[in-house]
């Protein structure tokens, strides 16, 4: 199990999937997972991506097999971004394509804006607007997690996340999977990173950006999504059918396909 000490008290677990032809040079893709997830969330993307790219799937600090974080940890976007930069430095990867889902898309937008020297293209799949409209629910969310645990919250909120057509067995898998997150990590994370305001960051993104959403996503309407997507000069919006907001999980094959097509057009020149 590969691990990297990204700070004195944190070891980051990660996976590298590389099924490219060994005699050809290949670029890298860094995948940033959502809240209460890990690098394992990208299982549906890897078969397509890893045939053409070196795919790096870290577990963000506090999540998956990485070191859990205490509830009072001072989370910032820069701390999280710096962890990923250290990982890519350790792998000797200078510039890479960046893909983020859910809160990983928030982190990814800030990453592209703040470290433009590292990001070749950015793909954002099923991610909230730069400022979340539900910020007022923060205290309620923290209380629910403290009193009932993450699995309870995941079960209550899963319908919007995975939509109305996702198979029942898949819903159960995602509930159990997300419920493994340490409560201590989530308390601090949801109170900070999960409600980050990245308005200023979006306006600074210069790399090509692809945004993927669904027609009836509960995170934002297509029009609301287009409003911030169009702030990035070289950007595109893909709207898939459905009502899930975690489109990276419900439509992994299509998302991976349009991401590969976008990178081929915008990032591999």
Walk me through the structure:
The chain is α/β, with parallel strands linked by helices. The chain contains eleven helices and eight strands. It has helices at 46-49, 77-90, 103-114, 138-148, 150-162, 168-178, 183-190, 199-202, 222-229, 247-250, 252-266; strands spanning 3-7, 10-17, 28-32, 54-58, 96-101, 119-125, 209-214, 235-240. Strands 1-2-4-3-5-6-7-8 form an eight-stranded mixed β-sheet, sandwiched between helices. Strand 5 (96-101), helix 3 (103-114) and strand 6 (119-125) form a beta-alpha-beta unit. The longest helix has 15 residues, at 252-266. It is globular and about 55 Å long. The two termini are 34 Å apart.
Question: What does the secondary structure layout of this molecule look like, with pairings?
Answer:
Elements: E1 3-7, E2 10-17, E3 28-32, H1 46-49, E4 54-58, H2 77-90, E5 96-101, H3 103-114, E6 119-125, H4 138-148, H5 150-162, H6 168-178, H7 183-190, H8 199-202, E7 209-214, H9 222-229, E8 235-240, H10 247-250, H11 252-266
Parallel strand pairs: 3-4, 3-5, 5-6, 6-7, 7-8
Antiparallel strand pairs: 1-2, 2-4
